[in-house]
Design brief:
The protein is an alpha/beta fold. It contains twelve helices and eight strands. An eight-stranded mixed sheet has the order 7-6-5-4-2-3-1-8.
């Protein structure tokens, strides 16, 4: 899904050459700070339908709408094609936007959506895709839909965007640990969650009211069989913990290698000064000798690249997300347990 999304982004920004979707669906309004996201029922149902039709793959597609008074209104969307042909995806998106414009339907692209599995969306692919969208249009957001959490009785839909701090960090390419510290970015400040509301038309509300009378009841919400969902969350938690452990070990190995490297540099500087003194030359200080060896491209004095810290930050974010999901779900289940016990006592 990431390859298809990136191809569509290239078509949107004109990276594929020729006519681009940006010339068709670019937002003409001045840039505003989006404080709320409003999703129409039609767009929401399309997202849910797409995710249900592709249970084994992440569903993704562009969001269409406009910005009104700091509110991002998402009125429509369509899925990316299943094929992974680069030219086909770009042409499909351009043709869709052109057709929507011809029938006077909102065709301004304001972001994209993606289905996920228990918070696994926090990865470098989503960040790069969202960065491309947000760099082109600052108001762009990504809607993350979790069908597994929704199956437990509550809609799991989030509107996310990259924070200004992380946008600056990504723009500079400072993915090392000092870069994150410089910009003040942690696992909690990579994404910003925007308040989201679902809007339905009056006719839809009337239809839902009529259908509600035909529903037998909401007894399924009192289901206490939650071991499967908790088990999946625990597995995801263990995977995130393993990833964080691997990133920590990689950083520890780098620090040990760096310490040995600096020790070898110090010993080489001492030997070099002794050689100069034996030859009757001015030995100079360590700084002068080090600059001389750097100018000669000595292998011991080449800078060592620090491993990027972005994967560790994202693993920490996934770990925190899984912990929060488990805590929230366990709290709701405790309420159901006490309720069922009270019913049995009666």
């Amino acid at each position: 899904h990431t390859r298809v999304a990136r191809t569509a982004i290239m078509a949107w920004t004109g990276g594929a050459g020729g006519a681009s979707a940006a010339t068709i669906g670019r937002m003409q309004l001045p840039r505003k700070r989006v404080d709320k996201v409003q999703v129409d029922g039609l767009a929401l149902m399309k997202i849910l339908k797409h995710a249900r039709e592709t249970p084994m793959h992440a569903a993704s597609g562009p969001l269409l709408g406009l910005v009104v008074d700091n509110v991002l209104e998402i009125t429509n969307c369509f899925p990316y094609p299943a094929q992974e042909a680069d030219d086909g995806t770009g042409k499909f998106q351009i043709d869709m936007l052109r057709c929507l414009r011809e029938v006077n339907v909102d065709h301004q692209q304001v972001g994209w959506y993606q289905s996920t599995f228990l918070g696994a969306y926090m990865d470098i692919d989503l960040i790069q895709s969202q960065y491309a969208f947000q760099s082109e249009t600052a108001e762009s957001v990504v809607l993350v839909y979790d069908p597994e959490r929704t199956a437990q009785g509550s809609l799991s839909l989030k509107a996310l965007r990259l924070s200004d701090k992380y946008m600056a960090l990504h723009r500079e390419g400072a993915f090392s640990k000092p870069g994150f510290a410089k910009h003040g970015v942690s696992h909690e400040s990579v994404f910003e969650e925007i308040p989201l509301v679902v809007r339905s038309s009056n006719l839809s509300k009337v239809l839902l009211t009529e259908l509600e009378a035909e529903v037998e009841g909401d007894a399924d919400k009192l289901d206490l069989a939650s071991s499967s969902y908790i088990e999946k969350n625990m597995k995801q938690l263990m995977l995130s913990l393993d990833e964080l452990t691997q990133e920590t070990m990689q950083l520890s190995n780098y620090q040990r290698t760096l310490a040995r490297h600096r020790e070898a540099q110090t010993q080489h500087l001492v030997n070099r000064r002794q050689e100069k003194m034996a030859a009757g030359e001015n030995p100079g200080n360590d700084r002068e000798v080090e600059d001389e060896l750097k100018a000669q491209n000595h292998p011991l004095f080449k800078p060592m690249a620090e491993p990027p810290a972005v994967e560790a930050v994202l693993a920490n974010a996934r770990l925190a997300h899984c912990s929060t999901q488990i805590a929230q779900f366990a709290t709701a289940n405790l309420g159901k347990l006490f309720l069922s016990q009270a019913v049995q006592d009666q």
